[in-house]
Every structure is written in C-alpha cells, then in structure tokens.
C-alpha cells in the first residue's frame, strides 16, 4: 500500500512539474510582450515605465529560477509552489495596488486597471493560497491578501470623494471587488467540499486496496479472486465462453520455512508471484489464495489450452533462482461446466490439486471427468 501511495504521489508531482514548466514558458512570453507594449507607450510617465521595466525584469528572473529548479528536480515541489505563491502576493499588492496608488491616478484609469487585470490577478493569487495550504491557513492567507488590496483601493476612493474627484468610478470599483469577494467565498466553500470529498475518496481507495490485495505479495487476494470468478461465471452463462480455474500449492513450503526461516519463505512467495504473473496473459487473473496456495483464472480458455499454459508456468517456477532450495508446485485445473457455481468449480480444482500432490507433486492434473480429454495428467519425467 505504501508503494502504491508513493507511486501516485510521484505521478502527481511529475504532472505538476510539467504544468509549471509549460506555464512558466508561456509566462516569459507574456512578460516580453508586456515589456514591448510598455516601451512603445509614450503616454506613460518615464518614472512609471522605469518601475514596471524593473518589475518585468524581476518577473522574468524569478520565472527563469523556478524553471531551472524544476529542471534540476531537487527542490520539493511543495516548496516551489509556496515560493511562487508569495511572489504572486508580492506582485499583486506591490505593483497592482500600492505603487499605482502612490502616483494618484485618475479614477477612470484605476477602474480600467481594476477590471483589466488587477482583479483577475488578485483572484488567481487568492485561489492559489486556498489550494497550496491547508483549508484554514489558506483561507486566512487569501482573505488577508484580498482585504489588504480592497483597503488600499478603498482608501483611494475615500480620497477622491473628499476632494470631489470621483466620477462614479469608485462605486463601480467597489462593485467589482464585492463580486470578487463573492467569488472567493464560493471558492472557499468549493475548496472545503473538495477537500472533504478527496479525503473520502482517498480513504475508500485505501480501504479497497486493503480489502482486495494481499499485503505480502501485492497480488489480488481471495476476496478479489472470488469476485473475478463470479464475473467469469456470469459471462459464461450469458455468452457461453469457456474458462478454467487453477489452484496450485507450493511443494514442501513448510520445510522451506522450517529450514531457512519465514523471511526466506516470504521471499519465495513474492518471487513466485512475480514469475507466474510474467508467464500469464494480461487477461488472466492471478492472486494469492492463502498461505502458500495461489489461484489462476483463465478466461476464454479451454481445458487443453489451460493445461498447456500452466505447464509453462510450472516449468518457469522451477527456474526461480537465488534460493537455497528448488521451487516447485502442484497444480489442479478445472474447466467450467454449465450450471457450475464458484464453490463447485473451486472444489473440483482443489480436488485435482490434491490428486497432483498424491501423484508425486510438481505436476498438473485436471478434474476427473468421463470425457477423455478432461481426465488429463501432465507427468514430470523422473
């Protein structure tokens, strides 16, 4: 289970790094375009253009540093995300709120800047704060940034009204910020529900892994194999597709545990799981039935085909190395018959497996039937 969680976390981190690389590259292009438009805008005062040129250099430099750190893949992605967030907060408050207010722009210009890009950048920054931090801390950070930005523009509006300069832009700016606040409130609620749903979904997936996976080998367990078998029976009843069930037991496994210890025994079981899975088809079901016993379900397979495929598995098991003793197993195979239930089918496979043990182990045996091709034993040359 831990390996599964680590794999999912690594996959998600790789996806985030890829997205940030693409976004950073596009961001550099946007900064270059903004720099070009600023240079050709002769109407903007020189001091304002100089300040925003420095800002564009800062933006480009920060983006290049982040892209470089993403390429090296040494810094944790969570740390990079928080660095980006605080840089965006600085950008939003400094260059979208504080510095413009110091130059005392006309109300109409502030209104144009507000609905042009300031409010959208503010909303994006607050939304990132919600997602990059735990719910309470993220909400507090987003509310703080939003409230400070609103307070700065509110102070400007009060000043306009005190000097009789407000041309109606102040009311529109307040309306825009109010709508933005409503949007943020919706995002808070959505993030809270998303966090709760994500936790429930994650817990369900983990419980499913625990319930249907063998903890030692990582293979499906008996409960999962029962479900797969019932689906195959339903499919066979509906469409008439043949399939076979095999139970096999590791020969003299107790002797391995007694002589070499349970650690070696566990390693043997894991090696068997890997070897058998590698020698089966992708459509076959394979799992640990319990103890040293395993189960194979072979859909769309006749008894003759199943015996041929499982003979390859039997031979492959004997080739497992790196252990102080040879590995072999006894196989019992049963073909589905119309009217079979999971219990009757498994019972016949189990009887065939014990018949293979009685016959000398390290062999395959099918369930005994009147038909000649069903009463088939694959003997191992002595």
Tag the structure with descriptive keywords.
382 residues, alpha+beta, Alpha-Beta Plaits, 2 domains, 6-stranded mixed beta sheet, 11 helices, elongated
In short:
Helices cover 69% and strands 9% of the residues.
Report on the structure:
The model is unreliable at 369-382 (pLDDT under 50). The chain has eleven helices and six strands. The two termini are 43 Å apart. The chain is of the alpha+beta class and 382 residues long. The radius of gyration is 34 Å and the shape is elongated.
Radius of gyration: 34 Å
Total beta strands: 6
- The secondary-structure element order is HHHHHHHEHHEEHEHEE
Give the overall shape. elongated
Q: What is the residue-mean pLDDT, rounded to a whole number?
A: 87
Q: How does the SSE layout of this entry go?
A:
Layout lengths: L1 H38 L6 H27 L4 H26 L4 H26 L2 H28 L6 H44 L9 H18 L3 E8 L2 H8 L1 H17 L6 E6 L2 E7 L3 H16 L10 E7 L6 H17 L5 E3 L10 E2 L4
Helix pairs in contact: 1-2, 2-3, 3-4, 3-5, 4-5, 4-6, 5-6, 8-9
